[in-house]
User: What shape does this take?
Amino acid sequence: MSTTRRSLLTALLASGLSPELLALGLPDAGFAANAPELAPLQGLAGQDLDTPRAEIEGRLPAALRGRLFRNGPGLMARGGERYRHWFDGDGFVQSWQLEDGQARHRGRFVQTEKFKAEQAAGRFLLPAFGTAIPAQRPVRGPDNLNAANTSVLQQGNALYALWEGGSAYELDPATLATRGVKTWAPELRGMPFSAHPKVEPDGTVWNFGTYNGRLVVYEIDAAGAVRRHAVLDTTAPAMLHDFAVSERHLVFLLAPIAIDMAAVRAGSSMIDAMQWAGEQPTRVLVVDKADFSRQRVFEMPAAHVFHFGNAWDDGTVLRVDYVQSTPLPEFNVAARQIMRGERTNRDVSTPRVLEINLQTGRLNVASRSEAVEFPVVDPRRVAQRHRFVWYPTAIDTGERWGFNGLMRLDIESGAREGFSFGAGTVVEEHVMVPRPGSSREGEGWLVGTGYDMGRQRSFLTVFDAMRLADGPVARAWLPYWVPYGFHGRFYAG
Assistant: This one.
């Protein structure tokens, strides 16, 4: 047993988890565990987690009431075999319930068709996005492979676990129990529903999906009814993760990524079959929200983009802020390294603002150098003019993997404010939660999660969103760590 594994077991036993759960909870097949910040990427083995009352450091604001839901890959190994890519793990949805100055944590695996079959078998049975596994069950469509592992969306009494390659999975928001595959309309059964829906202040949801090289768009009302959907007359790249919405437009950055389907049919994973054509442009697709058939395509130098902050337009100029990642081949090398417990080369993703003059067709990109990802804006400003974007950021981390701080960027003035937890902490995505009764942009809290390497425990942290430099006003500590996730949302109530 490695020193890292032994110390994790000691810490978790002290927290009260049973030896049986611990034996399941630290699968280390193919994991080097020589970088302490990567320990949570070992993953769990399918068990639930529950802490009825987290340890509070500081004081949670009395007005901060509701649930932070997060989703991410939670199970990385079965039967002595380990996934090769971070995107492959089975979806593990977490709920942090904040109320009366206390915090409760609950984590459940999404009971997808794939998850249940592989848990019963005790081994992998189906190919994954980044790991070539011979199919031992029929694959009739994307939902046979659905990992439900990327983000969440709540509408009424339904919480959806999202994965860009297939349908949403519906959960009970109170218990996280899985209800089943969500079908938005009979004609949309099995159609992919991406993990980055945009929710406007009135509750309107915009989303997209890609299937067989086509791009599908959705408009859904606040109650969950589909108003419109369409298959656009454009070719989608092999990977399209996110998009942006302004008052009048849907905006997609279509990177030059193709896929060799012959390689897939021969047994390659999807990610290994993807081809990056960096000499080709990224196409900027702008779709009229009022009439999906009205589309314009612009071109910019090749750019690989996972995440957008927001977009707004005044009818003439369209502005979009996003984070530009490293090109796909370099990104995937890094994603494989961390799944082996190895540190990566220090390539960084950085902020960008794209400005498009819709009359002249002129494009301009303003670049910055900060190492950031997972941009978020005040949810009251989605599709509207905004000033602030919040990100996790890396501050003097050296060779260590991951982010260790938070940053707020004023995209109008270029001013920034930040906070660093130091070298011993990994910071995940944080979301902006408006203060009840407020209307000013940024008035509220920044709420998210992280991992403390020294304590080997995960935590939730709360900042005043406009005073990051003051440090957290509160942290809620778990008696264990949880696997690193991707995305989440906060719902007041």
